[in-house]
Specification:
Residues 88-443 form the Anti-CBASS protein Acb1-like N-terminal domain. This is Anti-CBASS protein Acb1-like N-terminal domain-containing protein. Pfam families: Phage_portal_3. Residues 464-478 have a biased composition (Acidic residues). It is a single chain. The chain has 501 residues and is α+β, with helices and mostly antiparallel strands. It is built from 14 helices and 10 strands. It has 2 domains: 2-261 and 382-408, no CATH class; 428-500, no CATH class. The protein has a 3-stranded antiparallel sheet. A 3-stranded antiparallel sheet has the order 4-5-6. Helix 4 (128-140) packs across helix 11 (375-409). It is flat.
Length: 501
Amino acid sequence: MEEANRLKKAEIDAACRRNQLSDRMMTLIYEMRAKSGFQTTGYQLADIPAGVVPAGRRPAIAQDSNLISSVYDPNMPHFYPSFIGYPALANMSQSTDYRCVYEATAQEMTRTWGEVKVANDGDDKTYDDKLRRIEARMKELNVRDLMRRHIENEMIFGRSQLFIKIKGHESKKDIPLLINSLALGKGCLKELVLVEPIWTTPSFYNANDATAPDFFKPSKWFVMGEEVHNDRLLTLVMRPVPDMLKPAYNFGGISMLQLMQPYVERWQRTVDSVSDLIHSFSLTGIKTDMSNTLAGGEDGVTQLLLRSKLFAQLRGNQNLMLLDKDAEEFFQFNTPLSTLDNLLQKAQEQMAAPSRTPLVKLLGITPSGLNASSDGEIQVYHEYISGMQESYLLPQLTAVLKLIQLDLFGEIDPQIVFTFNPLEQLNDEQVANTDKVKAERDSAFINAGVLSQEEVRARLAKDEDGDYSGIDAEDVPEPPEWGLSNGDNQKEAGYATSNLA
C-alpha cells in the first residue's frame, strides 16, 4: 500500500510539474498580449487571500485568466459580469432577506434527518449492536449539525468542504486517502472540520484531456498554505457552473445569494419606495395672496414663514386652522394607498423564486383567499428537497458512514446504508386513519389466504414507528371458537355445562 501511494504521489507530482510549465507559458503569452495593447473584457478571477497559497507557489487557476476572458455585454438584464467575491457574499449573509433562504433550505434538508439501517430489508436484529454504535458515533461527531452548516456554507459562497482528519496523517495530507480496510483501521477517524472556500484554492487539476473523468476537477487544494489531496476533502457544490467559468468561481458553484441578489434588491427598493410614499402620501397647502411675498417684502416673507411653521407644529385632529374666507383656501391631495399591499406582496413572492421555497416555509406567510391552501406547493417543495438530499447530501453521508465503520470495526459492510426519513409528517388523526386502512387490508389478505397471521405480525413487530413494535411474531393468539364474540362464547360454554350436569 505504501508503494502504491508513493507511485501515485510521483505521478501527481509529475503532472503538477507539467502544469506549472504550462502555467508559465500561458502567463508569458498573456503578458506579451498586454504589452502589445491587446485587451479583452471578461470575467475576473476570484481574489485569494494572502496565506492560502504557499510562498513561492501560484494558484492553478492563474493559467486560465485568458480562457475566461470572453467578451460579454454587461448591460444585459440579470447578467452577472463576474463572481461577486467572498467578502460581498459574507456581507449579504448578514441581511435577513438573504439568510431566510439558506437557513430554511438547510434546516429542511436535515429536519427529519434519517437512519442507519440494513439494505434490502435485511434482518436488523443481527446488526442491532453495530447500528447503535454507528448512530452513537455520528452523534459524537455531530454529523447532523455539521451537514446543516455544510449546506448553509455552500449556499452562501457556492462551495463548502469538510476536511477528513485522520489520526497519524498530519504529515500525509497531500497523498490520496484510500477509504478501505487496507489503508485505515480501528480508531482512524479523529474529526470532520468545516472549511469555508475563502481559505482554499486548487493547486492542480487536469485541464488538458477533456475525455478524462477528472477534467476540470481539482486533485489537490491549497488550504492555508498546505497542500491537501482532494480525497481528504468532501466538497459540496449544488449549483455548478460550466467549465469555462469554474476558475472565475474558484472552482465552486454560483452562490444562492448571488442568484437572489436582483430579486432582493427589487424587494428592498420597493419597500423603501412604499415607506417613503406612506410618509408623505398627503400634500397639504393654502391658496393665499403671494404678491407681497413675491415682491420681496421682508415683513410678508417673515409672517408667511411664521404662519407655515405654526401650522406644521400644531397640525392635528385636536387643533384649529383659521383662514381668510375671501383671500385664502385650504386644500389637500392624498395619494391612493389601496394597491400598495399588492405591490409589496408580488415583490416579496418573487424572492422565493430562485430557491423554489414556498412563502409559508420561507417567510411564514400563508395564502389568502377563499379555499386558499399551500399543500400542493409544500408537496412539490418536499420533492425538490428530497431530490437535493439524494443527489448532493447522500454521497457525503455515505463517505462519512464508511469512515465511521472503519473507525469502529476496521471494515466496511456494504449492507449498512443511510436513508433519509420522509419529509412529510402525519398528525395523530392521519396516522390513525392510515393504521385503520392497513388493518382492513391485512384482514382481507388473511381471509383470502394471501397472507398468514404470522406474516402480518412479523411486519407489525418490525415497524419501529407502530404501536406493536417488538411483539413476538410467532406468539399468535388463538381465534375465538365457533366464530362468536367473547360474550356469546361464555354463554355457550355455560349452556353446555348445565346440560352436562
